[in-house]
Amino acid sequence: MQIKTAEFVISNQDVDKCPKNNLPEYAFIGRSNVGKSSLINMLTNRKKLAKTSRRPGKTQLINHFIINNNWYLVDLPGYGYARASKKAKKTFQKFITAYFEKRKQLISAFVLVDIRHKPQPIDLDFMQWLGEHQIPFSILFTKADKLKPKVIENHIEDYKNTLLEIWEEMPNYFITSSTKSIGKDELLGYIDSINNELRTIS
Fold it and tell me: Whole-model pTM?
């Protein structure tokens, strides 16, 4: 898939104010310092589509971007941002939960995980929540350019071993890097194949 157009549509904290049409949506979410905005900008070939910052927690709303006029990329607030107040965390959690529970246009979530670290409880708990609520998701391992291939392989194996203690099989996953464009073609190809299937069904 080639992304020819990527345009901002709306930001809000109210799921009921999200776009009303039935275009498919793919939601990106992860811990606040995982490199989500940089990855979104890399995928869309736009340097400033999603706001990046050295200070984690820049995304604090549900952000809809329409891609090629036929699907939405949804940028959700990061979870686990230590500097956010308890009130802010509670607000984020409330509308993130509402989005996943109410948004029928959602086709899949992409949970971003920093490949440099061992499996983190906060990420595993969130994946477990998605599974319990029967929300399809894939894992996007980010910052792959920071490690050697063998180390990446070992870290992926750690995730497999950890997740297979709970899951029957390893969730779908992609290895990515926003600086090296690693995983871009594979991820966009995956989204494109789902959209093509949806069109044949409809």
Answer: 0.91
